[in-house]
Write a structure and sequence with these properties.
Elements: H1 21-52, H2 58-70, E1 73-74, H3 75-82, H4 86-98, E2 102-107, E3 110-118, H5 120-128, H6 136-141, H7 146-160
Antiparallel strand pairs: 1-3, 2-3
């Protein structure tokens, strides 16, 4: 993804040579498996959010996990790190406060500014959720041989790079 969350240009754009039938079939298989993986991850996130609180939205879970990892954070910094508009953070923060999962703390450097912070209840509930520290993918991948894991990581890194190439040193 680019700095603004946009997808990079895709090979095979108009004017490029069409892939062979075998390559097209392989691409279709990869696309299908990526959709299955994306659905699996979305489902796992929804389930984890529901286990914390039935009213917790998946994006709220993402905010809580970020706050647990980074500690109290300004809403603008959180919005930037999660690549969303600050208004999205504000709406979710209100919902999280209503659920007792988020609190506002005064910034000691600027008494007017506030930090968003996960409450002790949120931290405790995150710890109770299976896969909160080790994702559900971890349980699927932990039995793979180390060489396969390194290869898979390199391929994902290549897929996620702006031009589809492996970064230098990979």
């Amino acid at each position: 993804m680019t700095d603004h969350g946009e997808l990079p240009p895709v090979a095979g754009a108009p004017g490029d040579a069409a892939p062979s039938a075998d390559v097209a079939e392989a691409l279709a298989q990869v696309e299908e498996q990526m959709m299955v993986l994306a659905a699996y991850v979305r489902g796992a996130i929804r389930e984890a959010a529901t286990r914390i609180d039935p009213a917790l939205q998946p994006f709220g879970l993402k905010i809580l996990r970020s706050l647990r990892r980074c500690g109290p954070t300004h809403a603008s910094a959180l919005a930037e790190s999660l690549d969303v508009d600050r208004s999205v953070i504000s709406r979710q923060a209100r919902l999280l406060q209503d659920l007792g999962l988020l609190e506002l703390k005064t910034d000691p450097a600027d008494g007017r500014a506030r930090f968003l912070a996960a409450t002790p209840l949120a931290i405790a509930k995150l710890a109770e959720v299976p896969g909160s520290d080790r994702s559900l993918l971890y349980s699927r991948l932990s039995s793979w041989p180390e060489a396969d894991l390194h290869q898979f990581a390199r391929l994902l890194e290549r897929l996620n790079s702006p031009n589809g190439d492996l970064p230098a040193g990979s």
